């Protein structure tokens, strides 16, 4: 397993982490993702640690907190060997203050997560979304206090717009508060909008990105191919609900190239798609999911090798989407306003 710095922090993280949205399955939405618990969850943790993956990602809303609870049980006796990331902001109850990034909610949400995880600290704590009703300095002061108390180690933002991130970083600098070292966002071969504004921002500000849904809601697993009926599974049962729409022809074109490269390299489509992400600027970590040990081992096979320059270029070309304004216009002034080479 390779390790990278999480942004400009001193924290070293494996390039892959295990997302535990498949743990629990306590409601209809997350049931489609998975319902791993008990011995099965502990076994997945075993396999991860055997391969050097010691980073586990969860959130308080995953299966209404059951994901954190299952993960906490699975990590018993080995907490000091691992890193845990969790998140708050989205509704965790029916009350008007059971949501958002206010001091009131964050203090209680963090304590509840610590209890479910059976630990005294969370290594990386993300704001799951931007709360425009709470002053940015209130959120950051609350997080700074949690860091000072030792209850969380580092802070991050997830699903923020670029200006949300920059406003937060500027506030941290102005007030001398802890800054977001990580961003967790969607990025895949069929979802490259991250590159337009967020990637240049992360490069400029030294924020490391953790990618969620790197396989585009399961569309890049090899189960969806041109001219073939869809296999039974999460996608067929509606597990991609909530994900962005993808043009069928665009998806097939990307999968065709993935398939060709995978066959030539003796890899799977999944492994090639994940390896492509690991070659991108700003990427510190890719969050992979697994319903069982077989899926986990396949995902772990994405590391330890590298796509060639030509293979990356082929994937870049087939997955390219012309940026919206003002990004396409800025491409004409790259001498003074450079963009990442992935454009």
Number of domains: 1
For CATH, the homologous superfamily is named as: NADP-dependent oxidoreductase domain
What is the molecular shape? Answer: globular
Specify the biggest β-sheet: 8 strands, parallel, barrel
Number of strands: 10
Per CATH, what is the topology? TIM Barrel
Q: From the 3D coordinates, which CATH architecture would you assign?
A: Alpha-Beta Barrel
Strand content: 5-15%
Q: Report Rg.
A: 20 Å
Number of helices: 12
Care to describe what's here?
- This protein has one domain: TIM Barrel (Alpha-Beta Barrel), CATH 3.20.20.
- 37% of the residues lie in helices and 15% in strands.
- It has helices spanning 28-31, 38-50, 66-74, 103-117, 136-148, 162-175, 198-205, 248-265, 269-278, 293-300, 309-319, 327-330; strands at 3-5, 12-14, 16-19, 55-57, 83-88, 122-127, 152-158, 180-186, 208-212, 283-288.
- It has an eight-stranded parallel β-barrel with strand order 3-4-5-6-7-8-9-10, surrounded by five helices.
- The longest helix has 18 residues, at 248-265.
- The mean pLDDT is 94.
Key traits:
alpha/beta; two-stranded antiparallel sheet; 343 residues; TIM Barrel; 37% helix
In short:
By secondary structure, the protein is an alpha/beta fold.
Write the layout of secondary structure elements.
Layout lengths: L2 E3 L6 E3 L1 E4 L8 H4 L6 H13 L4 E3 L8 H9 L8 E6 L14 H15 L4 E6 L8 H13 L3 E7 L3 H14 L4 E7 L11 H8 L2 E5 L35 H18 L3 H10 L4 E6 L4 H8 L8 H11 L7 H4 L13
Parallel strand pairs: 3-4, 3-10, 4-5, 5-6, 6-7, 7-8, 8-9, 9-10
Antiparallel strand pairs: 1-2
Helix pairs in contact: 2-3, 2-10, 3-4, 8-9, 8-11
């Amino acid at each position: 397993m390779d390790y990278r710095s999480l942004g400009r922090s001193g924290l070293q993280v494996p390039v892959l982490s295990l997302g535990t949205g498949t743990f629990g399955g306590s409601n209809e939405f997350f049931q489609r993702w998975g319902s791993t618990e008990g011995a099965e969850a502990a076994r997945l943790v075993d396999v991860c640690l055997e391969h050097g993956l010691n980073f586990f990602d969860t959130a308080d809303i995953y299966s209404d907190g059951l994901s954190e609870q299952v993960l906490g049980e699975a990590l018993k006796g080995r907490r000091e060997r691992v890193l845990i990331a969790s998140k708050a902001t989205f509704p965790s109850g029916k009350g008007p203050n059971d949501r958002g990034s206010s001091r009131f909610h964050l203090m209680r949400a963090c304590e509840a997560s610590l209890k479910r995880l059976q630990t005294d600290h969370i290594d990386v704590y993300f704001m799951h979304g931007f709360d425009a009703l709470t002053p940015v300095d209130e959120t950051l002061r609350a997080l700074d206090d949690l860091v000072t108390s030792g209850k969380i180690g580092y802070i991050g933002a997830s699903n923020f717009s670029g200006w949300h991130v920059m406003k937060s970083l500027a506030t941290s600098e102005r007030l001398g508060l802890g800054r977001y070292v990580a961003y967790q966002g969607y990025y895949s071969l069929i979802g490259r909008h991250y590159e337009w504004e967020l990637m240049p921002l992360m490069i400029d500000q030294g924020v490391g990105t953790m990618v969620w849904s790197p396989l585009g809601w399961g569309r890049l697993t090899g189960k969806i191919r041109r001219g073939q009926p869809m296999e039974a599974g999460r996608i067929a049962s509606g597990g991609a609900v909530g994900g962005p729409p993808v043009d069928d022809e665009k998806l097939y074109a990307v999968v065709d190239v993935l398939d060709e490269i995978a066959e030539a390299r003796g890899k799977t489509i999944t492994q090639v798609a994940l390896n492509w992400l690991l070659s991108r600027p700003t990427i510190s970590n890719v969050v992979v999911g697994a319903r069982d040990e077989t899926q986990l081992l396949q995902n772990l096979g994405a590391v330890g090798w590298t796509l060639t320059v030509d293979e990356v270029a082929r994937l870049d070309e087939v997955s390219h989407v012309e940026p919206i304004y003002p990004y396409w216009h800025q491409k004409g002034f790259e001498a003074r306003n450079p963009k990442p080479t992935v454009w």
